[in-house]
Design a protein that fits this description.
With about 600 residues, this protein is α+β, with helices and mostly antiparallel strands. The protein is built from 18 helices and 21 strands. The strands form six sheets. Strands 1, 2, 3, 4, 19, 20 and 21 form a seven-stranded mixed beta sheet that branches. A four-stranded mixed beta sheet has the order 5-18-17-16, with helices on one face. The chain has a four-stranded antiparallel beta sheet with strand order 8-9-15-12. Helix 5 packs antiparallel against helix 6.
Length: about 600
């Protein structure tokens, strides 16, 4: 029987990227409604777009729509690349979409998706924008009411999306091979590799930890240039951040670049006391070596300035996550920290930063090579936000805020961003530079526990960073990690059962019974921040113009059918906020309302 370990609800579409992207001209032909010759012209036709991995959900949606008087054209694509090409070409009325909030905060659940100009937004609604911005500055006690209004506008008033369900986060572990107690399952954070160890600890230094991933094409190994399922877990384990998330989505300095952090009165100034025991790793002759370069304040400042600047790199995909950062600076005046009070406390920022150190801070230095914690010499970085915005800490825990080497990135990215030529310019983090073959030229410098050595179409090889928190509990236990690229869940599960891989991250609900029936496997599960929904096309389609048509579809969808199909392993949702903020909003299927709105739409035709 599946046991779920439920964690408190606090705070990602996990985008799976693979395959070749077709051009607009390639995909337009033969995909428009009416081209298949099987349409019932007496009914309202809608085109439903999705990937083969979501075929079960698409079939449920199609059946519900047909039952309520629609004629449905199913546009089923084999992978994300072809799906995105269809979406970009506008060949759909509604698309099966999903989002997992990997930062633990509600702002991430809405800003990129629904705000005008957001990374993934195809919408533009000034009232939606205003509510998102207002909630972003509020405390949890205040933003619940604001997010409730946001949801009502998004779903009830305008019917921009149709919520389907919230999922559980699961993974299957071969407990005969791995120490089960060392394998974490976090609500938002990706799986941390450095804590995992074998049951036979003598194998940690010799045998590789073998994991799997469905996507072999990696968006980018530059943390700010990708935010999808192809690289999230990889970049999270290759770059340290100023803070981390606990398994239940609380902000912590544990295992991060910061020994401690503090928020000053006013919630606009954030202070971070940096560690001095992390060096960047580099690759030499396909081996991970210590670069000899310490990770320090100059790298933090460089990293976050480029993270918030949309023009810092071509194809920047995460700048909206960091747009609330105004300034980043290194603090050298120790006395100033003794006069600033911590938010909500009479304690000074200096006292907060000294907690658990075992000694006091004797001086602050701006040169990272001069920091020496044994002598009480530290670096402190201060971040100032554009307005009070406590949720900035959650974004600093995201993989896009992974610290990169200022020296190394600047030495690689010598091109002019405005005139970047994809045919000749090779940016830092280009996957081709780590792919076996004539283009291999691994220039990565990573600040985290692991570094990617090389990859091909079948697997990627990682080695531990020999300069990462050596001698502490955070030093990686296993020296080598192999990631196998396996597209099919059935093949992945077979590989796990045959001891070819050691862990299956994100097990589909349809495979729970198989995992539970195998005595050497353990299925771990918690409530997740993953929400599936239908997204309406906002351009050049009838659903783009007609609220009545969208609402007819909205009230057609019955979430109970999905929960039943997945044997109770889904829960109801209202928006991408549902796992994080309890607004009380609920969508109830109403065939009478669906018919009413459909009739109103048809009367205007």
């Amino acid at each position: 029987m599946l046991k779920r370990f439920l964690v408190p609800i606090v705070l990602v579409v996990v985008l799976v990227m693979s395959g070749c992207v077709k051009t607009k001209s390639d995909v337009e032909e033969g995909t428009k409604p009416g081209n298949d010759g099987n349409n019932d012209q007496s009914k309202v036709q809608v085109e439903l777009l999705g990937m083969s991995s979501g075929e079960s959900d698409l079939n449920i949606v199609r059946d519900q729509l047909v039952k309520n008087g629609f004629d449905v054209k199913l546009n089923l694509q084999p992978d994300y690349g072809s799906f995105k090409a269809q979406q970009d070409a506008g060949n759909y009325d509604i698309a099966l979409s999903g989002w997992t909030t990997v930062t633990g905060n509600p702002d991430y659940a809405v800003r990129s998706l629904f705000k005008t100009g957001g990374d993934y937004s195809i919408m533009s609604d000034s009232e939606i924008d205003s509510l998102i911005d207002q909630a972003g500055t509020e405390t949890p006690e205040e933003y619940q009411a604001t997010y409730k209004k946001f949801e009502e506008r998004l779903v009830f008033d305008k019917a921009y999306i149709v919520p389907l369900y919230t999922s559980y986060k699961t993974q299957a572990v071969n407990k005969d091979i791995l120490n089960l107690d060392s394998v974490r399952l976090s609500k938002s954070r990706s799986l941390p590799w450095e804590e995992i160890e074998f049951n036979d600890a003598s194998k940690n230094a010799t045998d590789p930890l073998v994991l799997s991933q469905s996507m072999s094409t990696l968006t980018s190994l530059d943390p700010i240039k990708g935010n999808d399922g192809s690289i999230n877990i990889i970049n999270t384990n290759m770059h340290v951040r100023l803070v981390n998330l606990t398994d239940d989505d609380q902000i912590t300095s544990e295992g991060s670049l910061s020994l401690n952090h503090s928020i000053a009165e006013g919630n606009s100034e954030y202070y971070f006391l940096l560690r001095d025991d992390i060096n960047f790793a580099k690759v030499d002759s396909k081996k991970a070596v210590d670069s000899g370069e310490r990770v320090g304040a100059d790298d933090v400042i460089f990293t976050l300035n480029r993270a918030k600047d949309k023009d810092s790199v071509p194809d920047h995909r995460t700048y909206t996550l960091h747009e609330h950062i105004k300034d980043i600076e290194v603090i050298t005046d120790l006395g100033s920290l003794e006069t600033i009070k911590q938010s909500g406390s009479d304690e000074t920022v200096k006292a907060a930063l000294e907690k658990g150190l075992g000694n006091t801070i004797s001086s602050l230095v701006d040169d990272k090579t001069k920091a020496n914690s044994e002598e009480g010499k530290y670096q402190v970085v201060k971040i100032t936000t554009t307005e009070p915005f406590p949720q900035v800490l959650n974004y600093l825990a995201h993989q896009s805020a992974g610290i990169v080497s200022k020296k190394q990135v600047e030495s690689i990215n010598t091109f002019d961003v405005a005139s970047f030529d994809v045919n000749k310019d090779i940016p830092y983090g280009d996957q081709n530079t780590v792919t076996e073959g004539s283009q291999y030229n691994n220039t990565l410098y990573t600040s985290g526990p692991y570094i990617l050595i090389s990859k091909n179409d079948y697997e990627a090889e990682f080695q531990k960073n020999p300069g990462y928190m050596t001698g502490t509990k955070h030093e990686p236990k296993i020296s080598n990690v192999t990631m196998r690229f396996i597209k099919d869940p059935d093949s992945t599960l077979a590989a796990l059962r045959n001891n070819e891989i050691h862990l299956f991250y994100a097990v589909p609900e349809t495979k729970y019974d198989v995992v539970e029936s195998d005595s050497k496997l353990s299925l771990q599960s918690i409530e997740s921040n993953a929400v599936s929904y239908l997204l309406f096309n906002t351009k050049n389609r009838e659903v783009s113009e007609s609220e009545d048509l969208r609402k007819a579809i909205l009230y057609t969808i019955n979430q109970d059918d999905f929960i039943s199909f997945y044997k109770g392993n889904k829960t109801k949702a209202f928006s991408t906020l549902s796992p994080i903020v309890k607004t009380g909003n609920e969508l109830v299927a109403d065939p009478a309302k669906a018919k009413e709105f459909l009739n109103k739409y048809q009367e205007t035709k």
